[in-house]
């Protein structure tokens, strides 16, 4: 992908400068960070040797990855324990409501955040839930032949095998064949699978699978920040994809 236009790069630099000044002026750093996220113009960028892709599939926004990028740019201005708790455990230094979180990062980015939450995080957890169930079932039928649990999970969730779906994903995106997937590519594939599942499964099963995955996520991540925790407790009735 080509680099962002110079004007957009300058805008990103201006956002970073405003964030740094806000922190130096004494504004609560988490609030300043969320406001900077609202203004951030780049869906992806390269900083040094690292590629940051904040927008998965052009629709799903990984706000914690952008938060990591912005925290690193502040270099020493933030309490280490607080920003590490945010980036590693999703625990915010301030107790804000879901509505405040949505207002601070802006409606468009908030909606894209929901796409990431359900299309990447919850989808990965759904795969884990089904794989665990199948593993238990296979252990109870030890003398029968089975597919590996991860392979059977793809058949159960998406109606086709992982290799077949991955080939279709790569053909659709015009990606070269390769032995493995990078983290960014794996997230793109997961989000693509999520959209495939929405189109392939009936709405009742989509809702049921989503609630199963959310229940597992609640058990796996008991210390999530309220900006995520409220969503885990009360998922929307309809998952919208722009």
Offer a quick outline of the entry.
The chain has eleven helices and four strands; from the N terminus they run ααββββααααααααα. With 242 residues, the protein is mainly α. It has a two-stranded antiparallel ribbon with strand order 1-2.
Give the DSSP E fraction (strand runs of 2 or more residues).
Answer: under 5%
The oligomeric status of these chains comes to single chain
What is the 3D form? elongated
**Uncertain segments:** 223-242
The tally of beta strands, per DSSP, is 4
Integer tally of domains: 2
The mean pLDDT is 84
Distance separating the two termini: 23 Å
Strand order, sheet with most strands: 1-2
List the total number of helices.
11
Give the helix proportion (percent range).
55-70%
Radius of gyration: 20 Å
Write the layout of secondary structure elements.
Elements: H1 6-24, H2 29-39, E1 44-47, E2 50-53, E3 55-56, E4 60-61, H3 63-74, H4 80-89, H5 98-105, H6 107-140, H7 149-158, H8 162-173, H9 183-200, H10 203-220, H11 226-233
Antiparallel strand pairs: 1-2, 3-4
Helix pairs in contact: 1-2, 2-3, 5-6, 6-7, 6-9, 6-10
What would your notes on this structure say?
With 242 residues, this protein is mainly α. The protein folds into two domains: 6-107, no CATH class; 114-233, no CATH class. Helix content is 66%, strand content 5%. It contains eleven helices and four strands, in the order H-H-E-E-E-E-H-H-H-H-H-H-H-H-H. It has helices spanning 6-24, 29-39, 63-74, 80-89, 98-105, 107-140, 149-158, 162-173, 183-200, 203-220, 226-233; strands spanning 44-47, 50-53, 55-56, 60-61. Strands 1-2 form a two-stranded antiparallel sheet. A two-stranded antiparallel sheet has the order 3-4. A hairpin with a 3-residue loop joins strand 3 and strand 4. Helix 6 (107-140) crosses helix 9. The longest helix has 34 residues, at 107-140. It is elongated. The two termini are 23 Å apart. Mean pLDDT is 84; it is low at 223-242.
């Amino acid at each position: 992908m080509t680099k962002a236009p110079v004007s957009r790069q300058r805008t990103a630099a201006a956002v970073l400068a405003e964030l740094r000044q806000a922190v130096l002026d004494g504004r609560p750093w988490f609030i300043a960070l969320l406001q900077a996220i609202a203004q951030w113009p780049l869906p992806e960028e390269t900083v040094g040797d690292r590629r940051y892709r904040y927008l998965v599939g052009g629709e799903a926004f990984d706000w914690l990855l952008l938060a990591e990028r912005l925290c690193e740019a502040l270099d020493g201005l933030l309490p280490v324990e607080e920003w590490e708790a945010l980036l590693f455990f999703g625990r915010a230094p301030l107790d804000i409501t879901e509505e405040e979180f949505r207002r601070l990062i802006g409606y468009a980015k908030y909606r894209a955040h929901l796409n990431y939450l359900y299309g990447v995080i919850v989808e990965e957890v759904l795969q884990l839930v089904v794989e665990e169930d199948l593993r238990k079932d296979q252990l109870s039928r030890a003398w029968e032949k089975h597919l590996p649990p991860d392979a059977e999970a793809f058949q159960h969730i998406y109606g086709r095998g992982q290799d077949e779906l991955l080939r279709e994903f790569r053909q659709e995106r015009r990606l070269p064949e390769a032995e493995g997937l990078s983290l960014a590519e794996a997230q793109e594939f997961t989000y693509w699978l999520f959209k495939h599942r929405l189109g392939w499964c009936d709405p009742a099963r989509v809702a049921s699978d989503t609630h199963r995955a959310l229940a597992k996520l609640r058990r796996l991540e008991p210390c999530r920040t309220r900006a995520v925790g409220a969503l885990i407790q009360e998922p929307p009735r309809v998952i919208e994809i722009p």
